[in-house]
Amino acid sequence: MIDLxxxxxxxxxxxxxxxxxxxxxxxxxxxxxxxVNELESYAAELVGKEAAIFVPSGTFGNQVSLLxxxxxxxxxxxxDDCHIVQHEVGASxxxxxxxxxxxxxxxxxxxxxxxxxKIREEDIHFPKTGLICVENAHSNGRVIPVDVxxxxxxxxxxxxxxxxxxxxxxxxxxxTLKTEAKEIAKHCDSVMFCLSKGLCAPVGSIxxxxxxxxxxxxxxxxxxxxxxxxxxxxxxxxxxxxxxxTKRLHVDHDNAKLLGEKLNELDNVNVFLEDTHISMVFxxxxxxxxxxxxVDYYNDNGIKVNGPENGVMRFVTNNDVKEEDIDYIVECTxxxxxx
Length: 339
Description:
Helix content is 42%, strand content 16%. It has helices at 14-22, 34-46, 58-69, 83-86, 91-96, 112-118, 146-158, 170-177, 181-185, 211-223, 232-243, 249-264, 291-300, 323-337; strands at residues 2-3, 51-55, 75-79, 99-103, 129-135, 163-166, 190-194, 205-209, 269-271, 280-285, 303-304, 313-316. It is globular and about 60 Å long. 47% of the residues are buried.
């Protein structure tokens, strides 16, 4: 099967499986799993932070960050189209007990003046602005310029408000911007990035920040049920992901651009080429079709896809999607639309 549903669907590489099999483990809740310790140390260095912690998932990483940065009842400023708002099941209200103050974003870019105007003054009626959240690469497929993050961080520092970066696909952003991940992450106080999105690790994400922040986050991870004991088996795959798989993301990006360009040549397909910054291809079908039937059709022809969200389809290239698969995907799409 050619799986285009997400970059989370990749299978661990042979090197990962061998590393997992041979991993030296201990009890990570006691801090004595050497492989987890190595992963956390390496990850922190990679993004230019003092310390890091291994967590089960990206949503877990974002939510433990909100819980650690904020007090209950605080207000968090963030974009109305970001992952924390759109795809994390309202967890911020359940776990951290915070209020989300969403701003209209320009395809992932937040207006600095708008952020500044929404920071709460000290008043008996107001919640405290406890955190600003940004996202890069954005879940809409776009990469946010570093200068935007830099300007937001400057406003946050002026007002003594921390910034959390949802960097689930941080290394995709770094690849597109042709820079190091630490050059993006230096414009935030904490950053989360996934090992299982595009990097082929089977499980896990990293949260990085100051040593004091990570110490607090470690206790909150335990509170949230994230103490994974002999998790070095998983961390071993994470090390391979960061050391090796980050170096090949340009292949996924190139394949996504090629797929988008070829799909856009078809009748009744409109690809948002301007949004193809990383490995995601967003498009709409202008012909009236039954999308459930389309998903079944793809599946019957060896291609796994998700149905549309708000009328927009998304195909995601990944390590298990090869350049030679692209013509077949386009051919199947063309046959369906012209049947």
